[in-house]
Predict the 3D structure of the following.
Amino acid sequence: MDVFNNKPRKPQLQKIKKWLDKILLSILLKGRTGIAISYIAKNWEKLTRYIEDGRLNIDNNPVENTIRPFVFGRKNWLFSKSQSGAKASAMIYGVIETAKANGIEPFT
């Protein structure tokens, strides 16, 4: 059973879905709240797919944390003295992060 805080997730999601279906009938869909709620309703199956397979995560935080250094690097490359220096810096950074992602210590 998929557990979050020692309580099954599926009943909680079913309650949210019931509320969602009810609220869709009583809000203006052109407003910001309506747009957000209709987005959730349209993508409900995709948003709840993780409860069907225990290998799936509820979020993509591990991926976000992996690409974060590239985002910082991209901002720093703007201040390189030359285009070739920025490319070289990006390539080295890419090799280092790829090594880390594959469990290899890049500095040894």
Remarks:
- The two ends are 43 Å apart (CA to CA).
- The chain has a mean pLDDT of 82.
